[in-house]
User: Fold this.
Amino acid sequence: MLKLPIYLDNNATTPLDPRVLEAMLPYFTEHFGNAASRNHAFGWQAEEAVDYAREQIAQLINCDPKEIIFTSGATESDNLAIKGVYEMYAQKGNHIITATTEHKAVLDTCKHLEKLGARVTYLPVNAEGLIDLAELEAAMTPQTILVSIMYANNEIGVIQPIREISAIAKKYGALFFTDGTQSVGKIPVDVIADGIDLMSFSGHKMYGPKGIGALYVRRKNPRVKVTAQMDGGGHERGMRSGTLNVPGIVGLGKACELARLDMDADTQRIAAMRDRLERELLTLEESYVNGSREHRLPHTTNISFKYVEGEGLMMGVKDLAVSSGSACTSASLEPSYVLKALGLSDDLAHSSLRFGLSRFTTDEQIDYAIGHVKEAVTKLREMSPLWEMFKEGIDLNSIEWAEH
Amino acid sequence: MAYSDKVIDHYSNPRNVGTLDKSKKNVGTGLVGAPECGDVMRLQIEVDETTNIITDAKFKTFGCGSAIASSSLATEWLKGKSVDEALAIDNMEIVEELALPPVKIHCSVLAEDAIKAAINDFRVKNGLPELEAAKSHH
Assistant:
């Protein structure tokens, strides 16, 4: 029996893999030691587990285990990277370059720094959701200390040209930070080959636990330093104080190991399901995929259905846990700033659904999702005066709308 | 958002979805809202010209669950009412009947405006003076 609702919001969070849970459990009870306790076996055991997790993580992203700083998650890592670099390199300059489609954890951190004197360039994206490398290069100045561009976008899954971006940053002597939250564990990420200086990522986006994340900080060529954002016991090479979340770290380590071992098989299976879902939903007239379909995560698709309204659509697909392009928390719906940045009109941005598949998604669930969405869109369109006008060939722009 | 059972019922089983022939003299059509605002409501009434009773009402709505429910409920209420009785429908009655949350009161206002616009259209078609502009909610 198919269990409803069906979870297709894995870009928001993933379920914990049972293999990860199994690895974590002893560290809550039996091996509960503080990894900073140097004087007894409990501490040593915890430290050993943490070191092992560092190795598992390092193997996934091709770094040195010492380059991993544990945090509470990607938001903290984003803050530590951007604020930490800004404070550490203030003497060199105050300019940061980022993009309009970044996660709020990056955008709001940049806005915060602007109040403290930072100059921030927010690069636009094209209709595919990609930044323009020439625009990036044109924005570089001798004062540029940091380029912060996400690896893959959470809403549309679009993957930025990371190697080209890092090469430009390097050419101008700036550091390159990437928010790797959606990409690490899903697609091959290699901090050396990709030229990444700092990278944030999080456990719960890759079948690991919530409340644990990491920041990769390069130690060589160049040696990168960040100013700590928390004062305390000087844990994590002084960059992030606080007692280590040992079970969480063990879970993140295990999740990374599983991601490395299962990635190829997972990707193949998930991408096939995603492509089928997308192909079927695109048989609905006037439906569009948002963002590049070529440079994209294998498990994500974001589709707009014209002439249906976002919140009405969300109500119509009640058996699916998906995310909508509008934040319908108020009377005036706010369309997604990411979709707006691609140049989508408000109505098209409102009427979009984001599907995020996972390792645990089944063909049966996809079959159900296809039927459910098709039914909801068809029903809402039959009820939509805009759809009727469209079918009659009336130009909706020719109508004088009584705005409310 | 937690909706009342009545909103969910009207959303799932909308009453009187459809289109009346707007070229007919005894049909009034009201189209209110705007696509960018996320709501467009079209309400139509068919009036018996001898009795001035609304014999049929249809709607089509592009909008959220509350907007669909408000217009569906409005068509139910319109049928069988005289045009004058229909004019007296107040948006707050819709709010109460559907237990709309405060942020969705706008949807009931839209429905009231759509009723007034449909009646106006009917009046103009039949040589009656236009009603004074429906109260402004903007």
